[in-house]
Prior knowledge:
The complex is a heterodimer. Chain A is α+β, with helices and mostly antiparallel strands. Chain A has 4 helices and 9 strands; from the N terminus they run E-H-E-E-H-E-E-H-E-E-H-E-E. Chain A is elongated. The longest helix of chain A has 13 residues, at 73-85. In chain A, the strands form 2 sheets. In chain A, strands 5, 6, 7, 8 and 9 form a 5-stranded antiparallel beta sheet that branches. In chain A, strands 2-3-1-4 form a 4-stranded antiparallel beta sheet, covered by helices on one side. Chain B is α/β, with parallel strands linked by helices. Chain B has 3 domains: 4-171, Thiamin diphosphate (ThDP)-binding fold, Pyr/PP domains (Rossmann fold), CATH 3.40.50.970; 192-349, Rossmann fold, CATH 3.40.50; 369-537, Rossmann fold, CATH 3.40.50.970. The longest helix of chain B is centred in the N-terminal third of the chain and has 15 residues, at 51-65. The A-B interface holds A 4, 6-10, 13, 16, 28-29, 32-33, 36-37, 40, 44, 74, 77-78, 81-82, 84-90, 182-187, 189, 193, 196-200 and B 119-120, 123-124, 127-128, 131, 148, 180-185, 188, 190-191, 194, 197, 290-291, 293, 295, 305-307, 309-318, 320.
Amino acid sequence: MTRATPADASVGRSPMDMTTRHTFVVHVEDKPGVLNRVASLFRRRAFNIESLTVGHTEAPGVSRMTIVVDTDTNGARRIEANLYKLVNVLRVKDVTADAAVVRELTLVRVTANHETRTHIMQLVDTFRARVVDVAPDSLIIEATGTEEKIDGLMGVLEPYGVLEMVRTGRVAMSRGQQSKTPGPADAAVSETDDNVSYSV
Amino acid sequence: MADIRTGAQILWESLVREGVSTVFGYPGGAILPAYDAMLDFPIRHVLVRHEQGATHMADGFARASGEVGVAVATSGPGATNMVTGIATAMLDSSPIVCITGQVGSKLIGSDAFQETDVTGVTLPVTKHNYLVTEASDVAATIHEAFYVARSGRPGPVLVDITKDAQQSSAEFVWDGGPVQMPGYRPELRASDAEYDQAVDLINGAKRPVIFAGHGILLSGAMDLVREFAERAHMPIAMTLLGIGSVPASHPLNLGMMGMHGEAWVNRAIQEADLLLAFGMRFDDRVTGNLKTYAPNARKVHIDIDPAEFNKNVLVDVALAGDLANVLTDLLPRVERGDRGDWLAAIGAMKGDSAVRDVQNMPDSGHLYAAHVINDIWRMTNGKAVVVTDVGQHQMWEAQYYHHQEPRTLITSGGLGTMGFALPAAIGAKLAKPDAEVWVIVGDGGFQMTMCELATLAQEKVKVNVAIINNGYLGMVRQWQEFFYERRYAATPLLSPDFEKLTDAFGLRGATVSRRQDVEPAIAMAQAEEGTVVINFKVEQEDTVYPMVPAGADLHAMIRRPSPIVETADD
């Protein structure tokens, strides 16, 4: 967010201007154009999306997005409020402060000849990654984990020559007991409002 | 037996069931089936001269009546011409529904003749929009569109209907009951703890100011706000769109705040210890420099849209909800107050403001816009519905027309859309046929949509138009005067002879350039059966005072040079 926040007006209050990485889990109706609406909202309000993933859930007609954004506490609250203004958004949860399982998946094609292949495969084992394709001069490695783990893997693969790489971006799920995915037919989602406060 | 009808018939049947009797539109290829079906329904269709006008008319209709306004256009250029009017309604939370034709569903994505991705184009400027490709979806979509437009924080909704969905048939099923939308939350309620905090701040405040915003009108909370202010003995400052929510004559009504607000109102805000924001959004035009804004004040913000909280100004307590509901909850807990000292202190801040007022200056023989607007106010007993355009005249209207009633000032506040006034006034007049409707418009803005004079003539709609003609794009000229060393780039403006022009449309025109001719011209317009356009040739380089330059401290106002006080600023 490049716009100046009126942080000066809140001297002595909580540090609202600290930019950190926020992860939102957003349930949306699976309808045409919904991804466009969500993406357009972030663009329009000048929030920069770090990563966005979208896929099906266990509930028919409901998609689940994991959106990662760098913003401050106040910005995160406004993102949540603005997401709720989209008619097709069913539920928004900022899981940043929750105990959550956060993972991404990566595929890496790395140069590998008969001299280096064994070394690389040992590294892959250390990272609990897998080799999913072997060619005479390269390997494709699949790894799942936190961003830090995948950054670490990339760091050790880099010297061998990374030819191609793709990362999915984060998906997240809170640990412990959770309410079920809201269905498109659920009339009320008020249970998510209980702890919503917009006061500073 | 199943009630089978075409999508076009279902569209009108649904609109009628939503209470629609007037629509503003312009036909074209992709909406032709709908127009053909329209003739069989009790609908008054106002043929506009440009689709932008249709949206402003729907907007003016909505603002004057509080009901949903409806605009209709064809695909492609018809729909894209609506975008300005939709954005205007979006920023001012005005409930309108726009119906657009779309090319056949099989042609979508093929760059067919007059095809535009209208739901894509309007996505960021609508509250919500729909693409309908099946006749069987028309009724439910229209019902939902009206619900979304008018509920919660109101706003524009667009329904794009493909030509084949209009032509094909389906069973007409009308469910007039509550709309089920799982993801839509029109209203929240704040926690008891937040109410407690708000009550403590309210009852403990020594120098409070209530901010009266557009939300009061949208919520219909006028009486509650008045009761609140009277019980707590708190002064009220108005936003531009809040004008009319509290009568101008009410002793607690200070007048307008912000960039062109009264100097003492802005000073009171800067010295306040509590700001109570009722349905307003701390727009940059009311706050000035956020770093120095109301430095001593705690802030309680009541709004139906939680996305407005802490957007521009960090607040201490945010109460989400419909203003009328929140005030109903708060009122019993508000203690009767006596804040006479604070009100007296604000009164003392007025200082020499009165003598700086053009109205109180000796008659120099020059005609000022303030004279014209003040005379219109006097001669309409402050009861007209005034529709303004955007610019200097808009600010003068806010300063010199003292509105007593809600929904009597209709103006493009958020988007600042030039060309809004004339079409919006047509919508306002059709919403309130018995009201005296005045358009106050600049020579620049009038020329943007003056084609709608033909609509006025064809539809035999009566409004009175006062063109405040200073030969410049006045507000831009004023900024050039203050901030660009009087380098008047592209602001001198040549206009046609508006009297002759009006005559060409078959309407009555007049030209006034002397102060003594203002009153007779207004009286003539009031007596005339049809629309009258008066070209008031006013002082060319007059300036709207006071002024807080954009981004400057709210208390650092540029004041009108006074014959008594020589210094221009304080």
